[in-house]
From TrEMBL:
Boundaries of every Fibronectin type-III domain copy: 63-173
GO molecular function: ATP binding; transmembrane-ephrin receptor activity
PROSITE patterns per UniProt: FN3
Name of the protein this chain belongs to: Ephrin type-A receptor 6
Organism: Chelonia mydas
Length: 212
């Protein structure tokens, strides 16, 4: 009786086999690598990640950059925000958006989350479309809305999340929760990142509007 022996060749560094057996070695997907032989999965490069459900054959991806080109529209009761997708999607298609509302005093470095007073339509997190409507403003408050783009690997990164911010200042004699054209003092826009030490604005342009 003849004994048969199968000889499997180990993949050299930079290549991998997703499954054991006599199959051809594959080159590591983009933004991934391996420095050892005989590996079943390539490790992502620094700054790139693989989501839990991403197959080992998929390229490693990274979080997106900040949304762009924020525009606004105001009617008698609401502020409508729209923006363009980020210039860098991180190599993924599962983009969503979040809008974070902060109330700031005269010192813009002293801000707090708006809480339940402000309403967002349809919601402020998990947005598929690049727009949101904001309702129920309070007078004499500086509101900052930070718009973030996220994808399937954003939560795996420890880097600060980039965002585009727009600031709305309201001023109205009567205590009301409606933003009217007359209550708008100014709107400013900036791009920054959240850091452990606060907000780091990397680009800032301000457009001042007189009361309408």
């Amino acid at each position: 009786m003849n004994n048969c022996f199968l000889v499997f060749t180990a993949c050299r560094p930079g290549f991998y086999k997703a499954f054991a057996g006599n199959i051809k070695c594959s080159k590591c997907p983009p933004h991934s690598l391996t420095y050892v032989e005989a590996t079943f999965v390539c490790q992502c490069e620094k700054g790139y990640f693989r989501a839990e459900k991403d197959p080992p054959t998929m390229a490693c991806t990274r979080p997106p950059s900040a949304p762009r080109n924020v525009i606004f529209n105001i009617n008698e009761t609401a502020l409508m925000l729209e923006w363009s997708p980020p210039s860098d999607t991180g190599g993924r298609k599962d983009l969503t958006y979040s809008v974070i509302c902060k109330k700031c005093g005269s010192d813009t470095s002293q801000c707090e989350i708006c809480g339940g007073g402000i309403r967002f339509i349809p919601r402020h997190t998990g947005l598929i479309n690049s727009s949101v409507t904001v309702l129920d403003f309070v007078s004499h408050v500086n509101y900052t809305f930070e718009i973030e783009a996220m994808n399937g690997v954003s939560e795996l990164s420890f880097s600060p999340k980039p965002f585009t911010a727009i600031t709305v200042t309201t001023d109205q004699d009567a205590l009301t929760k409606l933003l009217t054209p007359a209550s708008l003092i100014s709107i400013g826009m900036s791009i920054g990142t959240d850091t452990p030490y606060g907000t780091d604005e990397t680009v800032g342009t301000v457009e001042a509007l007189d009361s309408i």
